[in-house]
Amino acid sequence: MSTTTPGTALAVIGQGALRGTREAGVAVFRNVPYAAAPLGPLRFQPPAPAPHWAGERDASRHGAIAPQPPSRLRAAMGDFTVPQSEDCLSVTVWTPATDQARRPVLVWLHGGAFMSGAGSLPWYSGAHMAGRGNMVVVGVNYRLGALGFMHLPGVSAPNLGLQDQFCALDWVSRNITAFGGDPDNITVAGQSAGGFSVLAMLAVPRARAQFRRAIAQSAPFGRVMRAPAAAADNARRLQDLLGISTADQWQDVSAADIVAAQVKLTIATAEFANAVPPFGPVADGVLFGYDLLPAALAGAAERDLLLGHTRDEMAAFFAIDEQVKCAPPAAIEGRFRAHFGAGADAAQIEYRQRARSPSPMHLLGEVAGDALFNGGCFAFAERVAALGRPAHVFRFDWAAPGNPFSACHCIELPFVFNNLASWAAPMLDGGDRAAMATLATRMQDAWIAFAHGGDPAHPGLPAWPCFGAATREVMLLDVEPGVRNDPAGRARWHYWP
Prior knowledge:
This protein has 16 helices and 14 strands. The chain is of the alpha/beta class. It has a single domain, classed as 3-Layer(aba) Sandwich (Rossmann fold). Strands 1, 2, 3, 4, 5, 6, 7, 8, 9, 10, 11, 12, 13 and 14 form a 14-stranded mixed sheet that branches. Helix 12 packs across helix 13 (344-354).
């Protein structure tokens, strides 16, 4: 059912009627709950069934986002100020029309190290993609930090934030026809923590049964699943910082105090040249075990897959880290030994020969980027190709001339969403706006084409073959995009099996 009056749009789902808005040629429905608010006794519980309502629910304004500290990448990406609340389990839906057209659907899972971000931020507006691509785009908000990923026996089961995402995907599958979407043609897409979440969805049969395609951007393949004991230890340290000692006291402490204590714990547990935060996915033995990737590979063998990374992932972290920029040789050697053990000296020689700059920032950035993102991306692509379901692989190479953030983590996002004007991001400073707009159109058209039919090729790009185990074709996304065989050199990855 659809009813439209000037400036508004109506959709009717199982929970009730929603009155959204029409903006820039698409209908937008904001703050649509896909689960009950995790307040009071529902704090630290799996997502509960979504509420119903009588009459029309106002879906014209965004709701709150999950409680969180400032983004650690705000120096590169810019910042945002948005109301926060534990009542945050909502989606935003962009669609050309609430009709029966059964358009392709893209479900977006935001990044932020499972500590910050929201699918409802203007950065991730799906308006342009929905309008230009004749498709439905859904942005998901989910619980973050300790409220979403703490594991403390007797208080919180692990991976609640991932369970939120699975719940949102289930909501989309059941309700998207009311927004003109096709539940049989869903693509899940995410970047960074959201990219990891896509891998988790591929790994879990009940989740992957609900989508046909997957896009993983800068997924931290190298992030080792945290063991339950280690996760519980972090939770107990957080509990000590909050000055509480019993399970019932967790119901009384405020979300703001939990976030403030998280910041203290993050600082206390930080390691030199290591960007892994204290809360994240846990090998719980329920959703998945210690090694996520074999299960994700099984899912990838049954789904269309697009994956890739940026050329200089770690510049977003290290360009503002004075310890890294001024690292002495001993500190550099320590990181190499942490990664390579007895092979550290040989690895450092190879990395120094290949680094685009001899500075500590670039050298440590190369090895940390390979360890966390790049090496795992190519290893995963190789294994998918060996299973007979090759992926399309990209590397995002564009960077503004002279910008210290270079082609850093997150820099592809304004181009995917083709909404450069929504970003006041230092990582974009100095770029030629006309060339950036052209690249954004080309890149978004690739994501649109993939969501429609599983192939990102379109007339605005050179031919984009699948990644082959022997030829290793990768699309380099830049002002002049093109495919290169094995652009990084296979020898680079022998350190990252």
